[in-house]
TrEMBL record:
Record's protein name: DUF7745 domain-containing protein
Family annotation (PANTHER family): AMINOTRANSFERASE-LIKE PLANT MOBILE DOMAIN-CONTAINING PROTEIN (PTHR48200:SF1), PROTEIN, PUTATIVE-RELATED (PTHR48200)
Pfam families membership: DUF7745
Domain DUF7745 as annotated: residue spans: 7-68
Length: 70
């Protein structure tokens, strides 16, 4: 979809939604995503492993999503 738009439409979308279009190019490791989803606590927005709560840093989210920039 993004590739079909002209530059003006892309700029308008980028102005309204920021870097959201870059998420379309991210390759997601489905197995990793499924494994992480089992430990995600949506009420606290963190991962829970036993008694330990982990919240990824921005850099860790970027690495997991294979996203070079925010």
């Amino acid at each position: 979809m993004w590739a079909q738009w002209d530059d003006e439409t892309r700029q308008l979308f980028y102005y309204n939604y920021g870097d959201l279009p870059y998420l379309l190019d991210i390759k997601v490791d489905k197995h990793l995503f499924r494994a992480l989803a089992q430990f995600w606590n949506s009420a606290y927005s963190c991962f829970i492993f036993g008694e330990i709560n982990l919240v990824p840093t921005i850099e860790e989210y970027m690495a997991m999503l294979r996203c070079p920039r925010i």
